[in-house]
Amino acid sequence: DMKNTVINSQIQAFLSDPDMIASLANISSVIYNGYTDLNWAGFYFVKGGQLIVGPFQGKPACSPIPFTKGVCGRCYREKAVQRIDDVLAVKDHIACDSASRSELCVPVIVNGEMIMEIDLDSPIPSRFDDDFENEMLKAADDIASAFLQHQWHMD
Fold it and tell me: What CA–CA distance (Å, rounded) separates 92 from 55?
């Protein structure tokens, strides 16, 4: 059972917003400002057969990203969390910010389809642990529920 942390409670509060972009913009801020040692926090949307940057905090992002490339692409292909302790060891890593050293990418799945990803970068190697991953899995689950509840759509 996933416990509700302060971060997850703040995320849930913003998910009451019926506007998807407004909600996710505030959630990216909650994540970026709620944890130490992040240099990017935000969303990639599955749109038009590729990954398109959504609301985020941090330096400008690479967009679009093909499903075949990088940690975000692998998250899409495997529909599974990608927790990378050292991005320099990933041969096709896409470095939008050269300072990034570790990455956490979490799929948001609605009705068996991945609709978006939560993507987090840190300048610290091995920044992301089990607790952090579980909080973002809970966030992804809550976002998926809000997506259905508010009848959001990706076009």
Answer: 24
